[in-house]
Amino acid sequence: MATPVVNTEECIGCGLCAELCPEVFEIQDEKSVVIGPDKCDTCDIEEAVDSCPVEAITLED
Ligand code: SF4
Fold first, then answer.
1. Over the stretch 52-61, which tens digit does the pLDDT of each residue have?
2. Which atom from ligand 1 is nearest to the alpha carbon of 55?
3. What is the pTM of this model?
4. Distance 35 CA to ligand 1 centre (A)
5. 60, 40 Cβ separation under 8 angstroms
6. Which of 37, 51, 55, 56 has a beta carbon 3.0–4.6 Å from 7's, enabling a disulfide?
C-alpha cells in the first residue's frame, strides 16, 4: 500500500489534508504530520494529494 509523505518544507499548514483524512494527517505546529500512514483505506488519500494547494503530499510505495 502507498504511504503518504508530507514535504514539511512545502506544507503551509492549511489543514485540508487533515480535514479530508483525519486518520492519516494531523496539523502539529502549523505543519501536517502523517500520524496514520497505514490508515489510507479509511479515506480518499488521492483526493488529499490532489487537493493540497502546494502539492506537498506524495505517495510512496
Ligand atoms: S493540504 Fe498540503 S499544505 Fe495543507 S496542511 Fe496538508 S500537506 Fe500542508
1. 999 999 999 8
2. 2
3. 0.92
4. 14
5. no
6. 56
